[in-house]
Design a protein that fits this description.
The protein is of the alpha+beta class and 266 residues long. It is built from nine helices and ten strands. It has two domains: 128 residues, Jelly Rolls (Sandwich); 108 residues, Arc Repressor Mutant, subunit A, CATH 1.10.10. Helix 4 packs across helix 5 and helix 7 packs across helix 8. The N terminus is likely disordered. Keywords: DNA-binding, Transcription, Transcription regulation. This is Helix-turn-helix transcriptional regulator.
């Protein structure tokens, strides 16, 4: 559970139907693995949130929202001082959304709907929350998936390699070098990356590093220092990779974080 927040219930129970909650959370705050009978949207109005399941990790900066369908065991971690918003989606409405965890872009209308449904204002008229939730779901149904998903391995040989990289994302080792440590051949590991994780070794490591970069940037680390900490040889190559994966530059991402904090509801 989250710490006591400015709202009554930051981790909504299933009996609360669509009602959500909000809390200001410190950098690095985590929520242990748990399961909901209903669906759940988690939105970082400021900061960044990651959602981890057995299928991997999804990361959502302030311009994205995470979706976890019913029945998926999941955990959360928050980066930067985060205005965390949690919204329960009743199980009868979950069929409108994807059947697997994901991340979606947040436009102005979706953002305002999420903030209103997780705020502390009373329902203005009977049924108003339900109608607004329908708008939120319609927006999500028409929004492209922007997953920033880092899948996880099940094969022991591949898992040994990904564990090494999780422990040190900046590690410059080649796949052949990592394979020698893990006791597997480069060709076998390359095949496993594509068959199990749906991407090559270099792509997987880039997304892993971007996940760590998002956390560092949310905590106020400079772009240059983040590039070095996450394994890039120079800031320009980091900026190019970050823009390709996230859709904006690291500087723009940090500016958005500052703007969202400045306009956040106290």
């Amino acid at each position: 559970m989250m710490p006591k927040s400015r709202h009554a219930s930051p981790e909504p129970s299933e009996s609360q139907d669509m009602h959500g909650g909000a809390a200001w959370l410190p950098h690095g705050y985590s929520v242990a693995p748990h399961v909901h009978e209903a669906g759940q949207l988690v939105y970082a109005a400021t900061g960044t949130v990651t959602t981890t399941t057995t299928r991997g990790t999804w990361v959502a900066p302030a311009n994205r929202v995470t979706w976890t369908p019913p029945g998926f065991a999941h955990a959360h971690r928050f980066y930067g001082r985060t205005d965390a918003r949690l919204l329960t989606v009743p199980i009868e409405l979950c069929g409108e959304l994807l059947e697997h965890p994901s991340v979606f872009a947040v436009g102005p209308l979706l953002r305002e709907g999420l903030l209103a449904l997780t705020g502390d204002r009373p329902e203005p008229r009977p049924g108003a929350h339900r109608r607004l939730l329908a708008v939120v779901i319609d927006e999500l149904s028409d929004t492209p998936e922007l997953s920033l998903h880092l899948p996880e391995a099940t094969d022991d040989r591949l898992r040994a390699v990904t564990d090494l990289l999780h422990a040190d994302p900046a590690r410059p080792a080649t796949l052949a070098e990592l394979g020698r440590v893990a006791g597997a051949g480069e060709r076998t590991l390359s095949r496993l990356f594509h068959s199990e994780l749906g991407m090559g070794f270099h792509r997987w490591r880039t997304i892993l590093r971007i996940h760590h970069a998002l956390a560092h940037l949310a905590d106020g680390m400079s772009v240059t220092d983040t590039a070095m900490a996450c394994g890039w040889s120079n800031p320009s190559s980091f900026i190019d990779a970050f823009h390709e994966v996230v859709g904006q530059t690291p500087g723009s991402y940090q500016a958005d974080l500052r703007d969202s904090r400045a306009t956040a509801v106290p």
